[in-house]
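QA checklist item 7 of 12: single-chain prediction sanity check.
[x] sequence parsed
[x] length recorded as 367
[x] structure emitted
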Amino acid sequence: MSVSFVHGLENVVVSETEISFLDTEIEKIVIRGLDLIELSSTYSYLDIVHLLLEGELPNETERLILQKELSEKQSIPEELLQVFSIFSPDYHPMDAQRTGVSILANYDDQLDDNSVATNKQRAYQLLAQLPTLTATSYRILNNQEVISPLKELSYSANFLYMITGNIPSEEEEKIFDKSLLLYSEHEMPNSTFAARVIASTNSDLYSSLTGAVGSLKGNLHGGANEAVMHLLNEAGDVKNFETILYKKLQNKEKIMGFGHRVYMKKMDPRAEIMKQSLASLCRHDGDYTLLEMCEAGETIMREEKGLYPNLDYYAAPVYWKLNIPIPLYTPIFFCSRTAGLSAHVIEQHDNNRIFRPRVNYIGKQYK
């Protein structure tokens, strides 16, 4: 039997969906028929959560109900704190997050129910708990005092507060919320595909999300933002950054934060918004070093390789300016993407066919 083969499944359509689409012809990130970039100028992350899970943007009453619901469900089981305390100090927060999501399944007494209604409630529960789980696990791993959530803060402000220990300013809250919105959903990247493949076996949402965490941990996907910040810190200033980039290019090394399987001929539109956010934070503290370094790198990569920044390239210095520890960059990505991942798992369960692809055999000949 002849089987077609495309390396990395590039441009291979693997599913039909009503959730999102990257329309490269008109350069739009379409979420339920709406442009995510346009939405980012006037809507919040929780608005996009509602759009992804309910199919439409919320009205003011629905927005307040969602905020209240998530605020009331932020706490995590005490047993999780005990589990985090036995991890070694060098345990990556992504590993702690993966373990934590898996353990939360133990507290779901409807685990075998994959109906749309139950999965939605499960998704909201996880969206509420994941910021607490993520911030708490990191602080325990680093022998820091655990910070309990404050119900009076917004979803994004509270997340940032539990990480840093400081109540964010209005500008900081807005920028962090925008980053969550931009990371919330992006069609069919590796982690979403992994989640849908797992869900296609009729496995539960926790299993699907645990698999997605594993996918995001890799530096070719979610881990790229951490690599970008390490590179910026290694350089320290524009001149050194340029020298490092030219040396890496000469050695044919991969430079994280540039290029995208979908955005081939221009900058990721989400990156442009984070670039503007970085400029805003630089104006606030008067230090433009990171912005100047990133702009210099952007020019070099465009001229030398024809590559453009993706979201991770500018999200990394934004998170640094917000005093977020580097090891939490990718876990935050996962927290925000849980909205989109859950929507995909719900859709997969609701109209399922198990994924069972074939291979192109290139091994030893046989009779």
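[x] summary fact logged: The longest helix spans residues 116-141.
[ ] second reviewer sign-off
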